[in-house]
Amino acid sequence: MYSIDIMTLFDLTVGDMMNESILGRAQERDIIRIEAHQIRDYTLNKQKQVDDYPYGGGRGAVMQADPLYQCWKHIVDTYGPGHTIYMSPAGKTFTESDARRLRDDYDHLILVCGHYEGIDQRFIEECVDEEISIGDFVLTGGELAAMVVADAVARLVPGVLADPECFENESHWNGMLEYPQYSRPEEWHGRKVPPILRSGDHKKIAQWRRKQSILRTRQRRPDLYEKLDLSSKEDQKLLRELEEEETQS
């Protein structure tokens, strides 16, 4: 079973969210385990205080090392050692390849959610294996980031989704953005489903989807497009078709 423990000040909110829908059903089938732990339960004072003023002055407060450590130690003692990640805007930006790495290299993650001005550096140095950010922006707490990482990793665990195709054909799996998707009815507000998708010709449908992925990646994420290997005969043909279509439009 793949396990994810989340250290947080909002365990009920995080726990409820992580037990819904696909992830909830996967937990019911014992494929994954996701548990949120209230950091305040591990303080040694009656006020359940987890933060204090920062050394050196400045505004705000810093989460103290010991409540974090006691919570982390409880998780390790209960469920065994885990790869510990601090959700931090100063961390490495999270990508799909990181989700695959975390799934493949570990079977137990411990995600630490910071608040206020951050957490005591000494806890990071003693217990944290890596720091991860979900983008170049700052949130009021690490919960949203932790849930993003937990969801992205957990959905890749075998058995969580019905079939590997559920994620292998999606954006970022192979360095490209996913092609447009359509459902019934065939016409909605005057907009029709592309005829090729109703043709039943699976080879041509696959080619159309590949071409749309190439086009969407080039238009929206030129940084990803520059890294693509489009040297195959099939891709070169699709590129020529795209050029012809753009010339005609």
From TrEMBL:
GO CC annotation, single: cytosol
GO-annotated molecular function: tRNA (guanine(37)-N1)-methyltransferase activity
Subcellular location: Cytoplasm
Keyword Cell inner membrane: no
Span of domain tRNA methyltransferase TRMD/TRM10-type: 4-227
Keywords from the named record: Cytoplasm, Methyltransferase, S-adenosyl-L-methionine, Transferase, tRNA processing
Chief place of localization: cytoplasm
Family per similarity comment: Belongs to the RNA methyltransferase TrmD family.
Biological role stated in the UniProt entry: Specifically methylates guanosine-37 in various tRNAs.
Superkingdom to which the source organism belongs: Bacteria
The protein's name in its UniProt record: tRNA (guanine-N(1)-)-methyltransferase
Annotated catalysed reactions: guanosine(37) in tRNA + S-adenosyl-L-methionine = N(1)-methylguanosine(37) in tRNA + S-adenosyl-L-homocysteine + H(+)
Gene3D superfamilies: 3.40.1280.10, tRNA(m1g37)methyltransferase, domain 2
EC numbers on record: 2.1.1.228
Originating organism: Candidatus Flavonifractor intestinigallinarum
